[in-house]
């Protein structure tokens, strides 16, 4: 059966659970063609370890087919060094980067309709001499166009909650200087636009957290709200964007507040993501907004200690693929 949607899946850190996850989701039904980018022998090895029946097939760009459970199309990229479960090796860092590059090129060139990323290990990539902050930032460098205003925005979502970030992977000490009126406006505009266009929300309700405890408490606990966040929200509101805030982060996630929000915008990584992951870890999806391609990902890391053990839940990757397919169909 032919399909109109083709999804690229990068297999992630080879010593982690990414190859296991690829073998596991291959057992499921999907209304799209799935193409894993990675080492086919490694994925087959993990399938055999789990006693999963898996037929790896070569990827034929000219003949798209709906995924069949128990099979997996693979665009082959060999690892650089033999992989041992749980043991990181910087020699394979370029392999991981190459899978991302291949998926980006395919999405930009129309070969793929979306990309889904299995977890990688930022530390070992940096140890290899490649400067790497994270998926979100790297994809922006590869496919973004600053002259057109592209800017990556990280948003994680469960069926009950969406959380987006003004800043992503940065040390806490650097956050206050990074948060500017211009950045808050840009990030919020992107969220509003993509919730309109990719999630079909007519009037997205965006709740915005303050930076400081109690949202600064009138300047007594910090002035970033008065100096930066409130002026940004006033400008956004005057432009017709449905924003509320700044809200104290310790109450922004209470049931009453969440009933009034389609997304909560937090100022930094650990302000909002612990709440979301507590609420839906294993089922959440990481979505990169603000780019010309569709990209979703899992909500967890490489779980090196679980690679090859069989004690793995593929729910987040399954959800990430489902969402990528849904977004690609729009």
Task: Name the poorly predicted regions.
Answer: none
- Series of H and E elements: EHEHEEHEHHEEHHEHEHEHEEH
Name the beta content range. Answer: 15-25%
**Rg for CA atoms:** 20 Å
Quick description:
The chain is of the alpha/beta class and about 325 residues long. About 35% of the residues lie in helices and about 15% in strands. Strand 1, helix 1 and strand 2 form a beta-alpha-beta unit.
Task: Set down the secondary structure blueprint.
Layout: E1 6-10, H1 18-25, E2 33-38, H2 40-49, E3 55-58, E4 71-76, H3 93-108, E5 114-117, H4 122-127, H5 135-143, E6 153-157, E7 162-165, H6 175-178, H7 181-197, E8 206-209, H8 224-238, E9 243-247, H9 255-258, E10 263-266, H10 269-280, E11 285-289, E12 295-297, H11 315-329
